[in-house]
Amino acid sequence: MTTPTKAQQLYEGKAKTVFATSNDDNVIIYYKDDATAGNGAKHSVIDEKGILNNDITTIIFQKLHEHKIKTHFIEKLNEREQLCEKVEIIPLEVIIRNTIAGSMAKRLGITEGTDAKTTIIEICYKNDDFGDPLINEYHAVALDLCSFEDYEFIKKTTFEINKILVNMFDELGIKLIDFKIEFGRNSKGEILLADEITPDTCRLWDKETNKKLDKDQFRLNIGSLTDAYKEVLNRFKK
Ligand code: TMP
Percent of the chain having pLDDT more than 90? Predict the structure, then answer.
């Protein structure tokens, strides 16, 4: 198959830009260096972030394919771009928490790093105007974001993905604290894992030292985001 050629820009997000291609069923996703936090309240351009995230998400999506998880990812094209199946994103941010941190720690007054008695799944309505509010599956169905059947599929797949990722990061000496994923529908109506899985969308702590190897470096202003992301990538390459 020849690689489709890049066409007009379809969408520019906070960290990525999506382009149409000569094949209606494919898009090219370009990884930018922009970092944002607090729904865009904090913004910086961080040298190389896009290159590192394109590399990391490529490795992770390939690993998920080995475990038969269906994703939008087709191939990495160059430093910053990947070819993906075109999907319509289901406007849900699906979050897994293995250890309590971030917004859940704050909202419920729990010390960061407390182990959860059970793995937690949350969904947020992906809508910047309302700050991506936490909802449940009844809200999602009532708002016509997905059906109950779709939600059950998303939930089951998300727990499967969590199992794969926890083991994968464990082998790298990293604890997967939490992460956010998104799903989309392709032209055949199949639900695929979409978007990205990177240190932008996961909390990753070193197993021995609890050092944060993720975007909290930027959110909390505690160090070099690039160094943390390079560390994650280097562990994959060892
Ligand atoms: P939270 O603790 O801020 O709710 O974040 C939970 C996980 O989801 C964390 O790994 C970061 C990720 N996340 C995103 O990727 N995008 C977002 O917009 C938010 C709010 C969280």
Answer: 97
